[in-house]
Design goal:
The complex is a heterodimer.
Chain A: H1 2-15, H2 22-28, H3 30-53, E1 59-60, E2 71-72, H4 76-82, H5 87-105, H6 107-118, H7 122-133, H8 140-150, H9 157-162, H10 172-199, H11 204-212, H12 217-241, H13 249-255, H14 261-264, H15 267-277, H16 281-310
Helix pairs in contact in A: 4-16, 5-10, 6-10, 7-10, 8-13, 10-12, 12-16, 15-16
Chain B: H1 4-7, H2 10-41, H3 45-49, H4 63-70, H5 72-104, H6 111-123, H7 128-137, H8 155-168, H9 171-179, H10 184-195, H11 197-213, H12 216-221, H13 229-237, H14 241-246, H15 252-277, H16 285-294
Helix pairs in contact in B: 2-15, 4-15, 5-8, 5-11, 5-13, 8-16, 9-10, 13-15
The chains are: A mainly alpha, B mainly alpha.
Chain lengths: 315, 296
Amino acid sequence: MQKTSAQAGAKKTALKPHGKTLGRRILESWQLYALLLIPVVITIIYKYVPMYGIQIAFRDYKPSRSFFGSEWVGWDWFERFFTAPNFKRMIVNTVKLSLFGLLWSFPVPILLSLAINQLRFKKYKRVVQTVLYAPHFISIMVVCGMIRIFLSPYGGLINLLIGQQIDFMTVPEAFRTIYIASGIWQDAGWGTIIYLATLSAVDPALYEAAKIDGASMFQRILNIDIPELTPMIILQLIMSASGIMSVGFEKVFLLQTDLNKATSDVIAVYVYEQGILDHAYSYSTAIGLFNTVINIILLIIVNQIAKKTADVSFV
Amino acid sequence: MKKDKKSVGLSDRASDIVLVVLCTVIMLIIAYPLYYVLVASVSDPYDVYAGKTFLLPSQFTVEGYVRVFQNSDLLRGFFNSVLYTVVGTIYSLVTVYITAYPLSRKDLPGRKWISIFFIITMYFGGGLIPTYLVAKNTGLLGNMWALFLPGGVGMGNVIIVRNFFENNVPHELVEAAQIDGADDFTVFLRVIVPLSRSIMAVIVVFSMVAFWNDWFTALIYLNEAQYPFPLVMRGIVISTEALSKMTSGMSYAEANRIGELVKYASMIVAAAPMLAIYPFVQKYFEQGFMSGAVKG
C-alpha cells in the first residue's frame, strides 16, 4: 500500500514538473543541459562568432589583428564592388541563372508527384521512386564530370546522338541550359518527396467519392490533388524565391571555363576567388553580406505577397 | 481495391497505361546517363568514341578500375573519403542526437529560447570568409575536423529527429522509466536511442552521403595529401592535371585510352557506394520530411 502511494506520488511529480520552482527544475534538468553543452559551444564558436565577424565588411581586416581590431572603413568595400568592372555582368548572370532555374525546375517535382501519386501498383511505384531519387545521392563532382564528358566534342554522348562535334563547354549561350537541365535531372525526383508526403495525407474517402461521382483521373488530380498541394507549393516557392541571389556555387565553379564566363560569371564564384584565392577577406565578406541582404529582402517581399494573396506565410 | 472491377472504368484503365508509359520514360531519362557511364567504364574507349556502347559494353575490360586503384593519389583520396565519412557520420549522429533529445523534452526550462538559438543558424550565417577565419584561428587549417566543426550541428537533421522523439517515442515508456528511478542520461541511452533506430538509419545515410560527396570544404581547409576522392577526381574529370601526371610517358593513343577509362571508372567508384545504400532507408524519407516540414 505504501509502495503504491509512493509510486503515485512519483508519477505525479513526473507528470507535473511545473509544480516546482524554476530553479529546482533547472537543477533537476542538469543532465539535459549537459547534453546540450557541446552543441552549444560548437554553435557559438562556428556559427555566432562568424556572424559577429561580418563586421570586417566595414573594416580593413588584417590577419594579424582580431575581427574588431582593424581600421573602420565604412562602405568602401561595397563601393569598390559596385564599381568593379564585372559588377553588372555578375548581378545579371546570378539573377538570370537562378530565376530561369526556378521557372524551369520548380514545376517539375509537382508534376512528377501528381503522376507518381496516381500509380496504383505499389511495387512499380516504389521502383519509380527509387530511380528518381538516385541522382540526388551523387556528388556534384560526378554530375559535373558526367556533364563534361557527355558534352565533349570527342565522342561525348550528346554529340554522338546529334552527330555533331560541338564543344558545348565553351559556348556561353549553352551554359544556362546545361546548368538548369542537369539540375532538374539531379534534384527533381528528390523534390517530389515533400509533395508526395502531402498527398499521402489526403483522405482516401475523397477519392472514393470522386470515383463514384464518375470523376476521371485527370479530374481527380485537378479537383483534389492540386488544391491539397497548393499551400505546400506556395511555401516551397517562398523558400526558393528567397534564395534567388544564391546560386549553387559548387556547380557553377566546376562548369565554368574561360570561354563561357560571359554567362557563368556569378557573385558566389567571385566571393570565393576574392576571399580564398586572393585573400581579400574584407572585400569578399562585403560582397557576401550584400548577397545575404538581398536574399532577406526578397524573402520578406515574397512572404508578404503570399500572405496577401493566398493567406499562407512562412515567417 | 475491393471493388476494382466495378469502379475502374475504361478511362481509368487508359489513364493507368498512359501513366505507366510516362513514368517508365521518365525513369529511363534519369537512369540512362548513369547506365551509360557504367557501360563506358568497362568498354574499350575507342568503341565508346564510335558510339558502339549505347546499350551494352564492347570489348569488356576492367582496366579502368585497376588503374583507379593503382593510382596512389586516387587510392589515398579513396581512403581519406572513407575516413572522413566514418568520422563525420559519427560526429553528425552524436551531435544531432544530443541536441535533439533535450529539445524534444517539453519540460526543459528555457526550451523555446534554446531552440531559437539553434534554429537561427539555419537562416543566418557569417558567410564564407568569417567562417574561414574562425576555422583558421581555431587551428583547423590542414585538420580533418575542419570538415565537421564549421558546419556546426546539422539543424535539418535535428528537427527531423526531435519531431520523431516527440511523435513516435511513446511518452508512457519515458515516464515508466522515470518512475523506476532512471535519470535523463539513462532514459536517453536505454529508451530513446533503442526506440529510434529507424530515424537513426536515415540520419546515418544522410550524413554518409553528405560527407562522402563533399569536396568544397576540403578544398578550402585541407592540404592536397588530405583531399577526398571527389577532389582528387577533379584533376581527372574537370581539369586534366592529375590525368596528365598519371599518363605521362605513355604514347598519345595509350594515354588517351587510359584517360577515358579512368574518367568513367572513377565516376562509378565515387557514385556507387551511396547509390547502394539509400534504397534501404527510402521508405522513411517521406515520414522524415513530413515531420521536418510541419514544425520548423
